[in-house]
Design goal:
binds FE2/S2 (inorganic) cluster, Arc Repressor Mutant, subunit A, single chain, five-stranded mixed beta sheet, alpha/beta, 2 domains, about 210 residues, Glutaredoxin, 9 helices
């Protein structure tokens, strides 16, 4: 998938005072001369600050880390976790469209995005709150179909639960990440029921341990 810098760019980028302090601390984690290793955390912090990664942010981080600008651009444009275009002020929804998610209904989720957010990816909703894009496998195939919002995964979605998720976000609520069919992790939902029936365990073992 081709990932390019947005045609809309701010004039400049600067870390806030706190983020600047934080970035300086990150540099100390790496041996002298290896400060380029901090490029991913710094790009992520820039995205958390602005919502997306702009060209001025890439240039700022390159200067900060004493790296060629093209190297930082390579990193930012390689990983889907970095948004290269302005995103919704409330949330940018990344819908996985790879085979396992597609077989489990991701096309329905994309249909909801088109109907409720915008017809095209990377376009803001009319109120500017939401945006969306289709991405490649997010590594959570067992709980397909899934979407990523920021650092959170929302799993086992269907059309209705995804519509509800978007509604909650638009209404300023903070939906709990995770499965929408009650799974704790990636255990088989059928297996959980069988174990309960046999009296082996009320729930799956990892969930019991988690709840203490
Ligand atoms: S295919 Fe969607 S998470 Fe892997």
């Amino acid at each position: 998938m081709l990932r390019r810098l947005s045609s809309i760019q701010p004039k400049e980028f600067k870390f806030t005072k706190d983020n600047f302090k934080w970035a300086k601390v990150q540099l100390k984690k790496y041996p002298k001369g290896r400060q380029a290793s901090a490029v991913i955390p710094l790009l992520w912090r820039a995205q958390e600050q602005e919502g997306w990664v702009s060209k001025p942010a890439i240039e700022y981080i390159a200067d900060f880390l004493d790296m060629p600008k093209i190297r930082v651009l390579e990193v930012a444009s390689f990983y889907f976790m970095f948004h290269l275009e302005p995103v919704g002020t409330k949330a940018h929804i990344q819908v996985c469209g790879t085979t396992p998610c597609m077989l489990r209904g991701s096309e329905d989720l994309i249909g909801v995005c088109k109907a409720k957010i915008s017809k095209k990816e990377h376009h803001l909703s009319s109120d500017g709150l939401l945006s969306w894009e289709e991405v490649e496998c997010l590594g959570g195939c067992v709980n397909a179909p899934i979407v990523q919002i920021g650092s959170d995964y929302f799993e086992d979605l269907n059309k209705a639960s995804f519509e509800k998720l978007l509604e909650d976000i638009s209404n300023n609520e903070s939906p709990t990440p995770g499965s929408r069919v009650g799974r704790f992790s990636s255990e088989s939902s059928k297996m959980t029921k069988k174990l309960i029936k046999k009296g082996v365990s009320k729930e799956n073992a990892s969930l019991e341990r988690f709840r203490g």
